[in-house]
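Blinded run. Sample ID left blank on purpose so nobody reads anything into the name before looking at the predicted structure. Input follows.
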Amino acid sequence: MSETRTDMDALPAALDGLSRIEVSDCEVFDAAVAASGATGWTYYFPYLHFFSQLSGGERVLFERTANAVLVYRLVRKRDRLTLSLLVPPFPFDHDALDIAGARMAEVNRDGRQRISRVPEELAWAVARAGFELRFNDDEYIYDAAQVREMEGRGYASLRRKIGRFDRDAMDIRPYGAAERAGCEALLEDWRQTLTERGIRIGPYKTYAQRCLANDGAFHSSRLRGEVIEIDGAIAAFTFGGPIDAESASLFITVSDHRQPGLAYLQRHRFMAHDPGPRLFNDFVDSGRAGLAQMKRTFRPVRMHTLLSARRS
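Blinded prediction complete.
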């Protein structure tokens, strides 16, 4: 843990052997996710990498056991450290869970062991390991082909929303270095607008900045960016990519709130320009009614339940 000691002093020995997630770890994570049968927005590798590279009081760290990958969430508040698993071991393995449990019990003052996000398909295995489960949130899962086609009465609202825009006044293109300054300006305006509304975005802005500054660390097949320019100004940008063989992440979606309906258009066009995935995961709505309404307009084919888990 020497690389983390530089900005989190006096870390306990229980964290020895944990490391940040580097781009070079991608194949290890791909194999573990493929073998796990679990799915979810949290498993998107660029998200895990960017989360692991945060500075300050929160980040993720990982270790690889004989049978699984363990991803931990480390948080420092004042002089107190807490360690939890971000997701269950993947592939799920009881021995790996015991290893993680021992680390958490040693670091946490209350001795409790927690898992932040348990996908519904792993809930039974986690419960059998002695964890108490509670509902956390639901992820929105879209059928990519249905969204691209927008056929039928169910998609009438979406067709109306995106039909308001004059395609002749728009330029939708892949993100490149030339768009960075315009996207960064839009990101700051977007942040200020949400802050004025009392909406906290946490590290989301940092993830967006890391995407904009990618500099080739991730190939476009892993982290794809797209911008929408309206009347000569960048009005939206989107980033995402594959989670596993079947699903992809809508990772970052930032749009000009002065352009009503643009959040609908950017999602539709991003999915329309990627014929590969069968499903897209648009994460949760964070209890925001307007965001929930927008996401429901895409007619999710499934709400993927996430739970939190705790064991004393």
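Unblinding after everyone has recorded impressions. The CA atoms of residues 2 and 16 lie 9 Å apart.
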